[in-house]
Amino acid sequence: MKTELRTDITVGDICKGFSYNSLEGRGLYGWSGKLTIQPEYQRNYIYANGKDDVAVVDSLLKKYPIGLIYFLKVGDDKYEVLDGQQRITSFGRFVTGQLDVLDANGMPHKFDPAHHAWMLDIPLTIYICEGEGDDPEAEIKDWFRTINIAGKPLNDQELLNATYSGPFVTAAKAVFSNSSNANMQKWKVFVAGDEKRQAVLAKALEWVSKGNVRDYLKDHRYSSDITELTRYFESVIAWIDGVFKGTRSEMCGLEWGRLYETYHAKPYDPDKVWARVESLFADADDGKIQNRRNIFEYVLGGESEKKLLKVRMFSAEIARKVYRRQTEEAKSKGISNCPDCANGHEANAKRIYAFSEMEADHVSAWSRGGDTTEANCQMLCKHHNRVKGNC
Ligand SMILES: [Zn+2]
How many CA atoms within 13 Å lie on the side-chain side of 50? Predict the structure, then answer.
């Protein structure tokens, strides 16, 4: 790779012809049309949060350096930003009046040519890189993956997007990384994270590829057809919507891809499903269930996996008290202190178990409204407690 260090290009040079797409929140072009600010393999502009972008402008206003910037030479006097896109977009917006900076008193300041003209003359430190060898593009991309020189480090999906850049990633990002997509708000009820940092795209890929995202991207890289990706994602969302009548914040970020694969072929009555979900959340609010987020999977699975919910346990104090009472009674009657053993005709019908051989059980199951109180507690031998299987 050839590199050339340039220190003669100024903030003003880069801002000539600066264009910014405020709808998509990304810088497009600069440097009199010679520079593409956000090539397809770059992440979306993520400094536009009123802090990071303002910090870049603040640095320039204080005459602090803003760090090395890397351009990739892609043609005759044509360049793409390899690293520095976010910094360039931040100062470009300021200089073109599209970003205000607050002063120490909280007053917004616009770029004022009369006061800030000197800012345009600040020289930047820019490395211009040019790929060489058999596969110059691969060389550059490889290197790009390892730099993360400034700003926020790329996350896994952003790195994958850079590595497998091409028509597929471009088309997929237009749908799944696009905040102005009309479906985005609905999707984010179920998918956690920032779509601008590729969180929704990452989920869509994970779901359709059953976790083999890298292979999936490799196979589809040069195709612009994202039908399978969007269809699968929409099927998962439509399935959630169909089975669950309502939404709750706990639904965000669940493993919906896995749940869809496991349960989507089963029939459900949405009215009953949602009634159970609400009732279990009421139990959770009462402290009977500790793992709230598993309530959805518990209901989908026909309420057989009680372990999912981490149902509240009886305290050792209650269990010991009940054990003592049950054992005294049993001894006086000459029967087992496990009521279920006492009812049987086997060898254990008269067996007195040690405390450590027994488990506390809800007489009236919590799932049918039973409380976790002494009055609703009985001690069973481990065998019978497992057999009962109810909490
Ligand atoms: Zn028993």
Answer: 5
